[in-house]
Amino acid sequence: MAKPWKFLSVPIVLAVCLGLMLVPVALPGQVDATDGYNVTCSIDPATTSVSPSGSFSIDAVIDNPDGYDVTTHAIQLDFNPSYFTVDSVSLVDFPSNFGTTIDNVNGKITSDPYFGPPAKTNATHITSVRINCTAKALAGVSTVSWVYTDGPPPRKTKVIGGPIGEDMLDGNMSKMNDGTVMIGDFFNLTVTSDGCCPITVGTLGTVAANSNGTFMVPCPSVTLTANDTASACNFTNWTVDGGAPTTSNPIIVNGTANSSHTAVASCSVPQYNLTMNVTGNGTTTPSGTSSHSCGEVVNISATADPDWQFVNWTTADMSEIANATAASTTVTVDKEKTVTANFAEITGATLEGHVSFTGRGTAPDSRWIEPFNVTLFEAGNLSNVIWTGNATTNDTGVFNITGLDPGTYDIGIKNWTCLSEVNTSVTLTAGNTTAVGFGTTREGDIDNSDWVYLGDLSAFCTAWDTKPGDGGWNADADLDRDDWVYLGDLSLFCTNWDQKGDAYGYFV
């Protein structure tokens, strides 16, 4: 015959196909059930369209590509009997007996297995089934769906050495989807989304953004809607059958029986300007004004000029900046946006002092941690103090003082037990760290007079050969900081005997 059934419903075939659906059964000598199985069902044709009162047929094919021993299982197909009747089910080829019941009153096709000795086959092609139907005069769309009369798809088999009926969980039986039978006059319509708009095709379905779909549309028309409600997408126009574009949305596409049409929705992501501003002295990347797609996340960075530092980013909606205090971060551009990089002038300088100690081991050593008085004098004039403060070295003999006024100074340091040291004509610059070496301390100034002399000698002799807790113990006499006033301290004391500090007179 002329095969009007080549355009018929998937669901009907699915039902019968599932009516013959297979349950794998492992037999002695067969691969263990845990290896799994695979049973497939294909439909020809995949889409069904028929004129009122017309006849149509659908072929269903069941295959067993792995060649496992299989048998049938009962299923049921539900359809809407208002639109068509099932006239017969023809068995093209099937190697066993079974019964099929057609209920055109309630819209059901059921298939029952043969209740005799199990009918098994291990053929890779199991069966081809033809369903013969007649459409009624009522035009419309009928949904057809299948159900198993015994519950979920069968997955029972005998595992070698196990009980009969044990579940085989890793088997696969291809699921067949529900379908429709369309009775009446239809036209073919290809709908394309050229851009970011998803499209609604009447009640027939949707087309995702940047894709297309083909539909069989009941005559005489269908409504197409390009959905651009999201701020990140702008609808431009529709073009139907290659004609003049129209900015109308939604649109109605008309068609006659068996005609073919196309409809293309053009949409685009809007572009917004990102403008970068600066307060203070510095630059940004990007700079000026640049164009970006809506929703684009843009990398931005700020670089301060010399003697300036980056402070933060500001914009109207701060939530769109990932980290407002990071010099390199991101901003989301979802509208016209201005972002400002704020810079502040660095007015302070940093002094990094370096001091060494004798008799206290090799740095790093906790005995190198000492408090010092630090004084900035007018260059060449130790009688004019510009700034004074305190700093403590770390275990490598380094201290830092920040926020100092830029300028050129004579810089002196003094610890209680060592003589003062002065480094002259040191220039401190704004925003920079200046490292200054003060050499090795000269120990022995027990009375902190900045002169190792008689007062220190008296104190040293009183504390001689003592440890913490002993009578006469004086921590200031423990020049090497080993908790014992003894030979090491005597060596340091004698080395610096009768010496004065570089700033003697100021630190007294």
Describe the structure.
The structure is a single chain. The chain is mainly β. It folds into four domains: about 5-185, Immunoglobulin-like (Sandwich); about 185-270, Sandwich (Immunoglobulin-like); about 270-345; about 350-440, Sandwich (Immunoglobulin-like). The chain is about 5% helix and about 45% strand. The chain is built from three helices and 35 strands. The strands form nine sheets. Strands 3-13-11-6-9-8 form a six-stranded mixed sheet. It has a five-stranded mixed sheet with strand order 7-10-4-2-12, with helices on one face. Strand 15 (about 200) and strand 16 form a beta hairpin. The relative contact order is 0.08. Residues about 1-35, about 115-120 and about 150-175 have low confidence and may be disordered.
Key traits:
single chain; 508 residues; mainly beta; Immunoglobulin-like; 4 domains; six-stranded mixed beta sheet; five-stranded mixed beta sheet; 35 strands; 6% helix; elongated; disordered N terminus
Strand content: over 45%
- When the domains are counted, the total is 4
Which oligomerization state do the chains in this entry correspond to?
single chain
Query: What would the average pLDDT be, to the nearest integer?
Result: 81
Number of DSSP E strands: 35
Q: Tell me roughly what share of residues is in helical segments.
A: under 10%
Strands, helices and their partners?
Blueprint (H helix, E strand, L loop, with lengths): L9 H10 L2 E3 L13 E7 L3 E3 L4 E9 L6 E3 L2 E4 L5 E10 L5 E5 L4 E5 L12 E11 L4 E8 L24 E2 L5 E5 L2 E9 L4 E3 L3 E3 L4 E7 L2 E6 L7 E7 L10 E4 L5 E9 L2 E9 L2 E4 L2 E6 L2 E9 L3 E7 L13 E6 L3 E9 L3 E8 L14 E8 L2 E12 L5 E7 L2 E8 L6 E8 L4 E8 L13 H10 L23 H9 L13
Parallel strand pairs: 2-12, 3-13, 14-21, 22-28, 29-35
Antiparallel strand pairs: 1-5, 2-4, 4-10, 6-9, 6-11, 7-10, 8-9, 11-13, 14-17, 15-16, 15-18, 18-20, 19-21, 22-24, 23-25, 25-27, 26-28, 29-32, 30-31, 30-33, 33-34
